[in-house]
């Protein structure tokens, strides 16, 4: 082969030049595409930044427009308020409105005073009526037993037995004693509270700092139930357990008397029971005479019984005496039970222990129907109930033998036989619903307080200022509303509150009227002879008639007169153009002044239009 032909043939060991050129072109294109993509990203980022800048500028422009508009509106409102003040200075003071507002101020005070008196002057409370109901609905007692060891009468004798009495000792609060041996006996009513507040720190435990200063934490004592008694000479404590005859009470007496029955007691104290039932216990007591009333010789539990409690100390009970059955028992310090039986009495000139959860007070009035059965000194009382340790647990807790505790018994409240039956049932029913009277009085007082605040104070002040041509800035752009809105709001709220109170008063009338008639009949017929119950029913009639009925009637009269004045003032407002929908408040000259003032503001209209156009241009196109 010739050299020329050799040169024409491509070398076998070198790459194809065309393929190399093609690969080079492809690489160059990728580089070019990459540069274009980068450039596009840069352009897009620049456009985005430019768009954000434009949006911020547009937002700033919108905020500027809004600020200018608010500033302009505020200025216009201020101009309108000044103009309104000039106009109102020319108007005379509305004297009729001033008299109207003064009248309602006096009315609101009168209504509030009547409601407060009606609620405050109630001398009888629900608890007083409940005390009467609890007594006459108590079941009679037909047997009494005693026990030394088991203080739970139900487990000892059966479910029908319960303790003859239970005294609820309320327990004490926690405290921190920093008194350092203060002489408690030197305290008086005037300094005892200060002493225990400063030196005893009621209701808190001692901190480490106080403990380091010789203070001591006084732990609280839980409430306790006392039901044990003794002979007063350190004899063995015992518990008296009474069995009550279920279903036989003073209310059932009338029914029992209409069928085959047995009459117990005499005269007005007669009491009927079914013929197959023994008469209930009507007398109990303690004695040292084992042959008292020959009860041991008679040995007849249908008449009575007597048993030895140790050391020649006897307890007895007798049935069918001349008095009504005994149904209630109380133990109290001193020799009297408070008129409100749940109140705990305390001896004269004695101060109750200040850590007690509930404090005792000396009774101002007592329940004479409770009769003393037995008396022991205070140390015997705490010993028999195994709580003498309280004097060690509680600093200054004084258990003193010079104070006596007494056991009392009470019969049914004497209720005339002619008043038993249907009338008696009505009395008990009214007692269960007496709380409706006090609820209605509380609701009425709440509505009256709202009436006084809203009408007597708020609207009265606003109405008086309006009648004196005070310019309210909130109504500057609508001067014709100066009288309309305030007057209509006052009338609306007043009528609404009056309607609410009238409804409450009418409901109270319905509730009170029925009760008042029944209680009046009780007093007129002389149904009750017990001094405490007589005082209760007499005062209840007075409360319902004088305070509740009369005061509510006075409120209704006041509201009736008020309604007439409302109609008069509404008519006056219509005639004067002050009522909503009536003629314009301002005369022609006043309108001209408003018009002149409005021309001065016409120059701002172009600015407003330009702001609207600018806002439309700056809004982004969808």
Automatic annotation (TrEMBL):
<feature type="compositionally biased region" description="Basic and acidic residues">
    <location>
        <begin position="587"/>
        <end position="598"/>
    </location>
</feature>
<keyword id="KW-0472">Membrane</keyword>
<feature type="transmembrane region" description="Helical">
    <location>
        <begin position="493"/>
        <end position="512"/>
    </location>
</feature>
<feature type="region of interest" description="Disordered">
    <location>
        <begin position="579"/>
        <end position="622"/>
    </location>
</feature>
<keyword id="KW-0812">Transmembrane</keyword>
<feature type="transmembrane region" description="Helical">
    <location>
        <begin position="98"/>
        <end position="119"/>
    </location>
</feature>
<keyword id="KW-1133">Transmembrane helix</keyword>
<feature type="transmembrane region" description="Helical">
    <location>
        <begin position="449"/>
        <end position="472"/>
    </location>
</feature>
<protein>
    <recommendedName>
        <fullName>Transmembrane protein</fullName>
    </recommendedName>
</protein>
<feature type="transmembrane region" description="Helical">
    <location>
        <begin position="549"/>
        <end position="570"/>
    </location>
</feature>
């Amino acid at each position: 082969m010739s050299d020329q032909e050799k040169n024409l043939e491509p070398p076998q060991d070198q790459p194809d030049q065309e393929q190399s050129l093609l690969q080079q072109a492809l690489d160059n294109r990728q580089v070019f595409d990459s540069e274009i993509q980068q450039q596009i990203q840069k352009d897009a980022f620049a456009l985005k930044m430019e768009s954000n800048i434009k949006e911020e500028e547009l937002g700033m422009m919108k905020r500027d427009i809004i600020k200018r508009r608010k500033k302009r509106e505020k200025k216009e409102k201020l101009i309108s308020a000044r103009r309104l003040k000039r106009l109102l200075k020319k108007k005379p003071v509305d004297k009729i409105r001033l008299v109207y507002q003064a009248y309602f101020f006096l009315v609101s005070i009168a209504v509030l005073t009547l409601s407060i008196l009606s609620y405050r002057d109630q001398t009888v409370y629900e608890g007083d009526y409940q005390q009467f109901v609890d007594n006459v609905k108590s079941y009679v007692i037909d047997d009494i037993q005693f026990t030394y060891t088991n203080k739970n009468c139900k487990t000892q004798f059966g479910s029908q037995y319960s303790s003859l009495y239970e005294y609820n000792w309320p327990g004490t609060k926690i405290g921190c004693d920093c008194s350092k041996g203060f002489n408690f006996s030197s305290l008086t009513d005037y300094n005892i509270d200060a002493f225990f507040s400063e030196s005893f720190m009621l209701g808190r435990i001692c901190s480490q700092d106080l403990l380091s200063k010789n203070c001591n934490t006084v732990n609280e004592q839980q409430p306790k139930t006392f039901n044990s008694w003794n002979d007063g000479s350190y004899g063995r404590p015992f518990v008296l357990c009474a069995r009550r005859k279920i279903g036989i009470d003073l209310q059932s007496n009338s029914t029992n008397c209409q069928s085959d029955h047995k009459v117990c007691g005499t005269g007005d104290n007669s009491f009927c029971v079914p013929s197959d039932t023994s008469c209930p216990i009507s007398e109990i007591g303690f004695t040292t005479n084992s042959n008292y009333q020959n009860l041991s010789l008679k040995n007849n539990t249908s008449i009575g019984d007597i048993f030895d409690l140790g050391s020649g100390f006897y307890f007895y009970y007798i049935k069918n005496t001349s008095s009504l059955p005994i149904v209630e028992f109380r133990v109290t310090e001193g020799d009297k039970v408070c008129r409100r039986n749940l109140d705990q009495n305390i001896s004269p000139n004695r101060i109750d222990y200040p850590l007690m959860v509930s404090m005792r007070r000396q009774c101002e009035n007592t329940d004479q129907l409770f009769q003393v059965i037995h008396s022991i000194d205070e140390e015997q009382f705490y010993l028999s109930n195994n709580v003498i340790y309280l004097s060690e647990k509680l600093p200054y807790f004084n258990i003193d033998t010079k104070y006596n505790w007494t056991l009392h018994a009470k019969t049914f409240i004497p209720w005339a036989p002619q008043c038993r039956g249907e009338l008696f049932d009505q009395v008990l029913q009214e007692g269960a619903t007496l709380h409706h009277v006090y609820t209605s009085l509380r609701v009425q007082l709440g509505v009256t307080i709202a009436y006084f605040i809203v009408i007597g104070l708020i609207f009265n002040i606003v109405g008086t200022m309006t009648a004196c041509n005070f310019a309210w800035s909130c109504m500057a752009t609508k001067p014709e509303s100066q009288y309309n809105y305030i007057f209509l709001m006052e009338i609306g709220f007043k009528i609404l509150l009056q309607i609410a109170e009238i409804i409450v008063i009418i409901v109270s009338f319905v509730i009170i009227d029925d009760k008042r008639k029944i209680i009046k009949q009780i007093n007129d017929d002389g149904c009750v002879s017990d001094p405490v119950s007589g005082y209760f029913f007499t005062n209840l009639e007075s409360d319902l008639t004088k305070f509740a009925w009369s005061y509510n009637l006075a409120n209704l009269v006041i509201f009736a007169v008020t309604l007439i004045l409302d109609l008069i003032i509404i008519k006056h407002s219509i005639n004067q153009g002050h009522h909503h929908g009536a003629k314009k408040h301002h005369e022609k000259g006043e309108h001209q002044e408003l018009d002149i003032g409005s021309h001065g503001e016409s120059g701002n209209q172009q600015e407003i239009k330009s702001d609207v156009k600018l806002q439309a241009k700056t809004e982004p196109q969808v």
